[in-house]
Write a structure and sequence with these properties.
Layout lengths: L5 E4 L3 H12 L4 E5 L10 E3 L6 E3 L6 H5 L1 H6 L8 E2 L3 E6 L5 E5 L2 H7 L4 H13 L1 H8 L10 H15 L10 H11 L9 H13 L7 E2 L4 H13 L3 E4 L14 E4 L3 H8 L5 H8 L6 E9 L13 E6 L3 H12 L9 E4 L14 E9 L8 H11 L3 H4 E7 L1 H7 L15 H5 L16 E3 L13 H15 L21
Parallel strand pairs: 1-2, 1-10, 2-9, 6-12, 10-16
Antiparallel strand pairs: 3-4, 5-8, 6-7, 11-14, 11-15, 12-13, 13-14
The structure holds flavin-adenine dinucleotide.
The site of flavin-adenine dinucleotide (FAD) has 37 residues, from helix 1, strand 2 and strand 11.
């Protein structure tokens, strides 16, 4: 039995974003978290040495730097310093070569040589209308675009690159590998329209608001959100796994920062059969299998410039990534899967101690794969950084199957909370005009299993909270999210 106006189940970035909005609207908000600490995908902890912290899930935050929710929340003004690497991401290729996406578009184009003009034609126009592009993709995807030019620019690029015609626009291997490495963030078959949209969004942000890392780790973002909730009267209950909605029966609204599978577990018997069946049909994507390393020195990349990037994509050429990602999406294990490496100390030297440096790396593997990824990830890094293995002081592996045990939202290790197909980007988790509302009165889904999907942008939580304000409390004013007390006094609803 809850005595609050609103109960939120789960404290990932979306649960926290929902909590900020609802607490600032003057409602009594309680947040329930199964784990002993809050944050979901925003946890940072010491794993091997008390002086070195590791990001357990998310590490790099292009979406938090750009999303409408975080623009209004203003992380910088709350003391969260977003550190920008000189090179947003790098993509090593065989023969000691590497493609580099500098923060500067001009420098990137210069580095890409003959393909520089094509890269500029691709990213330049998106950069000029960046805020509109971001607002279009990081939305509930139910309204007409406010900037039709941005929508056209995006639609054209997604059609070309999502259909596989785009690779022919580049002459060399570097530019097409650079773009395909970003498309692989969608974790699914390549090429596809959904992965092309991800490539356009993340690709242009690399030269705009950037791919920053919070000084001290991702946990700083969770901390800033939690402090705001507490300052507006919100209360946290950690170590409480909510097993049934009945536990929260006193609350007028319940927001679930859970997977669709979690929604079924909490509410299954009460849901109308037709809705429940559609939720059951929701498809999960490939898994992530991660290794946290403590290493004695910076990664010895064959091309030393790669060490100036915090994010490194290991997938080889465009054709190789298409093969790997498509096989993985079909549940086939590959010997050389796509691997993403993050070296936070490259931009935040305070993250390392002499002889101790955190490195974060995960491979894309079939959903539910129980295999320890250590050998595979290490070999993938060594191919472009010979001698890396000798620098490993300690490591910890988390298989795709084990990720679900750590966080029930990562079903089978799917860190995107649902396969990123075009259909599921919009119909998350079912086709409905208001995807946040469930057929149960006062029960909302607010996790990344709703639009706009995965990543730390807070938008699913924000939009679900607005829906709850409107439908459960009759409040249409949007609370001010800027630091300090909420400026729009919505008053307590009657
Ligand atoms: C290895 C890894 C790397 C990633 N890297 C990045 C990155 O660099 N940048 C980026 O933007 N994104 C990244 N992501 C994705 C990002 O972390 C997620 O998209 C994001 O955290 C989703 O937020 P959420 O609030 O929807 O859910 P989550 O962050 O998953 O939080 C859900 C919370 O709800 C709790 N919960 C669930 N069920 C219950 C219940 N019944 N009772 C109580 N509590 C419950 C869980 O314990 C969890 O704390 C990464 C994810 C992983 C796993």
């Amino acid at each position: 039995m809850s005595t609050s106006d609103v109960a939120i189940v789960g404290t990932g970035p979306n649960g926290l974003a929902a909590g900020v909005v609802l607490a600032r609207a003057g409602l009594r908000v309680e947040l329930h978290e199964a784990a002993e600490t809050i944050g979901g995908g925003l946890r940072t902890a010491a794993l091997f040495d008390s002086g070195v912290v590791h990001d357990i899930c998310s590490a790099v935050h292009p979406m938090a730097a750009a999303s409408p929710f975080f623009r209004a929340f203003d992380l910088g003004a709350r003391g969260v310093e977003l550190l920008q690497p000189e090179i947003s991401y790098a993509h090593p290729l065989d023969g000691g070569r590497a493609a580099l996406a500098y923060r500067s578009l001009a420098q990137t184009c210069e580095h890409l040589g003959a393909d520089g003009p094509a890269w500029r034609r691709l990213m330049g126009p998106l950069l000029e209308r960046s805020e509109a592009v971001v607002d279009l993709i990081l939305s509930g995807q139910r309204a007409l675009p406010r900037d039709p030019v941005a929508a056209l620019l995006l639609a054209n690029r997604v059609a070309v690159h999502g259909s596989g015609l785009g690779a022919a626009r580049f002459r060399g291997e570097e530019a097409s590998a650079l773009l395909t490495g970003v498309a692989a963030h969608a974790v699914g078959k390549l090429p596809s329209l959904a992965s092309a949209a991800v490539a356009m969004l993340l690709g242009h942000l690399a030269h705009g608001t950037g791919w920053p890392l919070p000084r001290g780790g991702s946990g700083r973002i969770a901390q800033a959100l939690a402090e705001d909730i507490t300052a507006h009267g919100g209360v946290f209950h950690t170590g409480h796994h909510v097993a049934d909605l009945a536990e929260l029966s006193g609350a007028r609204a319940v927001l679930l920062d859970t997977s669709p599978k979690g929604l079924l577990a909490l509410a299954g018997r009460r849901l109308p059969r037709a809705y429940a069946r559609r939720v059951e049909r929701f498809r999960y994507g490939p898994g992530a299998a991660k290794v946290d390393f403590l290493v004695s020195e910076p990664i010895p990349w064959s091309d030393p410039a790669v060490g100036r990037a915090t994010t490194v994509h290991l997938g080889g050429t465009h054709a190789e990534m298409v093969r790997q990602e498509t096989a993985t999406a079909r549940r086939v294990r590959t010997r050389e899967p796509f691997v993403l490496v993050v070296d936070p100390a490259a931009v935040d030297p305070g993250r390392a101690l002499p002889g101790k440096r955190p490195v974060w790396a995960y491979a894309h593997v079939p959903n539910g794969d129980p295999t320890d990824p250590y050998d595979l990830v290490r070999a993938r890094i060594e191919r472009h950084a010979p001698g890396f293995g000798e620098t490993v002081v300690s490591h910890r592996s988390v298989s795709a199957a084990a990720y679900e045990a750590y966080n029930p939202n990562y079903v089978g290790g799917d860190i995107g909370s649902g396969a990123m197909t075009l259909y599921q980007s919009i119909a998350r988790p079912v086709p409905r005009f208001d995807p946040y509302r469930t057929p149960l009165p006062g029960v909302y889904l607010c996790s990344s299993a709703t639009p706009p999907g995965p990543s730390v942008h807070g938008m699913s939580g924000y939009l679900a909270a607005l829906s709850a304000l409107r439908h459960s409390f009759g409040i249409r004013d949007i609370p001010d999210l800027a630091p300090g007390p909420a400026a729009v006094a919505c008053g307590r609803p009657g």
